[in-house]
Design a protein that fits this description.
Blueprint (H helix, E strand, L loop, with lengths): L20 H11 L5 H15 L7 H11 L7 E9 L8 E10 L2 E11 L3 H13 L4 E9 L8 E9 L2 E9 L2 H25 L4
Antiparallel strand pairs: 1-2, 2-3, 4-5, 5-6
Helix pairs in contact: 2-3, 4-5
Length: 204
Amino acid sequence: MTPESVGRKGTDMVIGKHSGSHAIKSKLVELGYTLDEQQLAVVFGAVKELADKKERVFDEDVEALVLEKVYRRRDKYRLKDMSVFSGTHGVPPHAAMVLEVLNGEEVVDEKRHSAFGEGPVDALFKCIGEMVGFAPALDRFQINAVTGGTDAQATVTVRIAHGGKKSVGRGTNEDILVASAMAFLNALNRLEKMREEKDECPTL
């Protein structure tokens, strides 16, 4: 019996703290990344560090680590301030944000906006989308506790898609909503870079 015969991927392996470099290399190949030995060592160390904090490392976690540690690019948007209101008595969730627009390390603009949503995270993502001028589709939203207790830090991983491109982002904070905004912006910055590179390519 093959994995495919029961609806599973042939290389659908679980990455954890006991995974070796070969398993992680195979996972990277499955995700479409071919790294040299030095890059693989950097990602391997980052995966092992993350695996010490959570039981299972998902594909999105591995991909986000590759993008952070190997293919890190300068951000176009950076979170400066945010507030979120959410309740149970008829008032829809509401998010207000201040984003900095960067050119390299220089802040060239500051955007302020607010938006309502179906929930606090939806309000945040709508607010960001309206500020940057387009709304990527949210393919995946995942929350994991990094530490235990009521003051635990949370890591949020998101995968977004727009214009045929997909991007993964991560954010870590003791406030889940702040971590969510950071993750969305992290993915959005990568998506913006892909769009810029496409625009720069000459038409053949």
